[in-house]
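dumping this here so i dont lose it
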């Protein structure tokens, strides 16, 4: 067995990127996991893992506000010692790929995205997050320095793996590197079809209540159409969004895994209005037999087909409502919808990763 290490940006909440890390840990249970910051309370599943954290772990509020230390993360990852490993797998959308390895060590980077807030979404992030002065004045200079480091650190990777063709194009654009696509996975055992009685039921949306998820667009659309919409999630925009919403829109906050499955199962459709690099949420809904109404860009184009959902082509309430009206005239077979999700089974991900490392 090759001596392997796993690296990730941080383990401070549990979402799609963390599920990939957990899958890698299950494939290579004896491989230590190097990360900048680890919050065991918010990242279940790693209790038996050998987790090695950086000096950032011990700074104030780091476990709950890792974003505050982004500019220190390049130093944190460069200070890790990987001289004992034959293979290092980094899972990165920020700084984890910036590790330094020996010439004979294979460094594979599973790239969820080039650092969005340093590259194509830089100006949008600054507008939407309303940074206070003087941070708003310093941010462009700091991001320029981060871009320089990010581009240089990409040259330390031996082989890039992209989580979608959408991301592969961005890797080529910003890093000038080719990449192979290995899709993430959906937990098909966790999400199943149950008896669906969805006529005149609700539409569903979920995610962090932050600007790029486009919940404001959803609320504008459903304020106009009057249909029932349930929103699962929390975030900094919660108060603002609740003030915008009419009575047909219900905010559910956090829900349990079991409740989430039930909400998926009984929804008419999941609404997915944002641009995501891949997007696990639509696959979870499809695994429950629930079709998708998605914005026609990003990873959604690679996971949703004509038998599992419909697309709207502009991020506007008018375009979304037009597509909802079209959706209401159609019917979707839950079993066929689930079959689309089954293409993204975990076993496929595992086989491709093992093959890439030369263990299959």
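and the seq i came up w/
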């Amino acid at each position: 067995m090759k001596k392997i290490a796993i690296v990730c940006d941080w383990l401070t909440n549990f979402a799609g990127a963390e599920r990939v890390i957990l899958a890698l840990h299950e494939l290579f249970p004896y491989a230590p996991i190097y990360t900048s910051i680890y919050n065991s309370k918010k990242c279940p599943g790693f209790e038996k893992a050998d987790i090695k954290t950086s000096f950032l772990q011990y700074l104030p509020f780091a476990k709950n506000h890792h974003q505050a230390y982004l500019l220190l993360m390049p130093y944190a990852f460069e200070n890790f010692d990987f001289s004992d490993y034959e293979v290092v797998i980094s899972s990165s959308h920020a700084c984890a790929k910036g590790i330094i390895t020996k010439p004979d060590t294979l460094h594979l980077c599973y790239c969820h995205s080039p650092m969005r807030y340093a590259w194509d979404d830089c100006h949008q992030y600054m507008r939407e997050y309303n940074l206070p002065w003087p941070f708003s004045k310093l941010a462009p200079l700091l991001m320029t320095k981060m871009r320089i480091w990010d581009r240089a650190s990409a040259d330390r990777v031996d082989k890039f793996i992209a989580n979608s063709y959408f991301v592969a194009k961005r890797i080529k654009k910003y890093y000038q590197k080719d990449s192979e696509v290995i899709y993430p996975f959906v937990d098909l055992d966790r999400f199943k079809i149950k008896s669906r009685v969805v006529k005149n039921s609700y539409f569903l949306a979920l995610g962090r209540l932050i600007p790029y998820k486009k919940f404001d667009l959803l609320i504008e659309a459903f304020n106009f159409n009057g249909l029932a919409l349930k929103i699962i999630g929390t975030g900094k925009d919660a108060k603002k969004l609740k003030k915008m919403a009419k009575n047909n829109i219900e905010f559910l906050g956090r829900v349990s895994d079991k409740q989430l499955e039930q909400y998926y199962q009984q929804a008419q459709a999941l609404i997915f209005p944002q641009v995501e690099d891949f997007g696990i949420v639509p696959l979870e809904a499809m695994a429950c037999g629930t079709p998708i109404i998605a914005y026609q860009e990003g990873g959604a184009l690679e996971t949703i087909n004509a038998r599992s959902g419909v697309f709207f082509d502009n991020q506007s309430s008018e375009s979304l409502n037009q597509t909802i009206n079209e959706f209401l005239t159609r019917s979707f077979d839950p079993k066929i919808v689930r079959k689309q999700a089954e293409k993204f089974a975990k076993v496929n991900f595992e086989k491709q990763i093992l093959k890439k490392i030369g263990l299959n």
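The first strand starts at residue 4 and ends at 8.
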